[in-house]
Design goal:
By secondary structure, the protein is α/β, with parallel strands linked by helices. The chain has 14 helices and 17 strands.
């Protein structure tokens, strides 16, 4: 069997959903499990709903709910057989109103917020269910919260792999054996006690890989609006090209440092089993896309190990200078305990004998973070930074790569350098305003002109 995950732009309107139905129909013989995201931009609207509730803006809450309801009903009206989705949609919106109206004027609890943010996937999957049924396909709608078992850390729950495997074999495997096409939702899950959770933004890819690993899929397909991983962001480098293949490590690094095509954790459940990921374009389904696996199936260029140049704007550089403490036992433990306590992830880390430099992107917790770091040493913060990552395979064993990278960066200044221990990336921090030009120069250095 295979898993086919369709992102928000692949279900954004009736036309996109009809393309999805054709793609699934063409794969019916491969026993697909279909995973869908919310319609494009719906999750952002749900985030705004939570804010309307907190601020006591009941009118804004009602207006946003009405807009979302009308949008989904309009998509249903444009689908053959779409009227079949209306009872479930109407009931879901009525239930959400019932939950949110009494909460106006207070902050939603983490569990309530997860319940709210997961609604988009439930709504979109009802539309896709109607479209697949209208196309004559034996679809079986499945609530992902019956299968994706997580811990109770709301907002970014951790999947429980063994529990997911058992649930997938209990719920999904019989449907596949009976010739049905299971249709479920990405992004959402539930605790063992049944409380709704979410996997974090972009988590639909993660859902697909969890199901692929649990069911020993032949491959996991990620359907999006681009042809695959690219040598650079085409909005910055118009001549960027699609990578025919990439390793799991390369894909993870690219996702972590700015590539929006894939969730960073997607490869984790699949790498151990050697299950490939294929990134495909729902608008151009005949394009071969990018195959991600343990090794590169083919190299884009035979004269170098570089696969892609990625960049991530919006970074905040935090420097902790502690000449008397860095060499002391337990200093780094104390440092990272502060980040853990505030639940602030670190993207890039570099250290010297007297200082530690880290990048974060969560500005909302920055003030409290800096306050708790102050006892450890002198803390400085520089906003308006970007992370640039040169990602490839076997970079540590390729002489001259760093010289070419830093030669291309000139005349811009590099503030932090981090060489990945996996030999997969060379990462550095620059001013955000310099980022696009640096990416363009690096692309010319390693990939030349089109």
């Amino acid at each position: 069997m295979i898993v086919c995950k369709f992102g928000g732009t692949s279900v954004q309107d009736a036309g996109a959903i009809l393309r999805l139905a054709k793609i699934v129909a063409a794969r019916r013989h491969e026993q697909p499990v279909v995973v869908v995201s919310a319609l494009a931009r719906v999750t952002d609207s749900l985030v705004s709903l939570a804010e309307s509730v907190r601020q006591g803006h009941g009118a804004a809450l009602e207006a946003t709910l009405e807009t979302l309801h009308d949008r989904h009903r309009a998509v249903a009206a444009d689908l053959a057989g779409g009227e079949a989705a209306l009872p479930a949609l109407d009931a879901a919106f009525a239930e959400l109103r019932r939950v949110l109206r009494p909460a106006v004027g207070r902050v939603l609890s983490p569990a309530e917020r997860d319940l709210l943010l997961g609604q988009g996937e439930l709504w979109s999957s009802r539309l896709v269910e109607a479209a697949l049924a209208g196309a004559g396909l034996p679809v079986a709608w499945v609530d992902a919260r019956q299968v994706i078992v997580t811990d109770d850390r709301h907002g970014r729950a951790t999947p429980q792999l063994e529990a997911i495997r058992k649930a997938a074999h209990a719920v999904l495997a019989p449907l596949l054996a009976g010739g049905r096409i299971p249709l479920t939702q990405g992004f959402i899950g539930a605790t063992a006690a049944g409380r709704p959770t979410i996997l974090g933004r972009g988590g639909s890819d993660f859902t697909a890989s969890l199901l692929g690993a649990a069911l020993d899929a032949v491959r996991v397909e990620i359907w999006t609006d681009v042809n695959g991983l690219m040598t650079a962001d085409p909005r910055i480098v118009p001549e960027a090209r699609t990578l025919a293949s990439a390793t799991y490590d390369e894909a993870a690094e690219l996702a972590t440092f700015g590539a929006k095509v894939l969730h960073p954790a997607t490869q984790l459940p699949l790498a151990a089993a050697g299950i490939p990921i294929v990134i495909l374009n729902a608008q151009h389904p005949d394009h071969p896309g990018t195959i991600i696996g343990a090794t590169r199936a083919s190299a884009l260029r035979a004269d170098g190990p570089i696969g892609s140049i990625s960049w991530k704007p919006g970074a905040i550089l935090v420097n902790v200078r502690a000449p008397r403490m860095l060499g002391a036992y337990g200093f780094l433990r104390q440092l990272f305990e502060v980040f853990e306590r505030h639940e602030v992830p670190v993207d890039v880390l570099a250290s010297s004998e007297v200082s530690v430099s880290l990048t974060v992107e969560d500005k909302s917790r920055l003030e409290a973070l800096v306050r708790d770091l102050a006892p450890l040493g002198e803390v400085t913060v520089n906003e308006g930074r970007a992370i640039v990552a040169v990602v490839g395979h076997g970079m540590l064993s390729s002489p001259g790569i760093a010289a070419r990278v830093f030669g291309a960066v000139q005349p811009a200044n590099i503030e932090v350098i981090s060489q990945g221990a996996s030999a997969t990336n060379l990462t550095f921090v620059v001013r955000e305003v310099d980022g696009p030009a640096i990416v363009q120069r690096l692309h010319r250095e390693f990939f030349g002109s089109p």
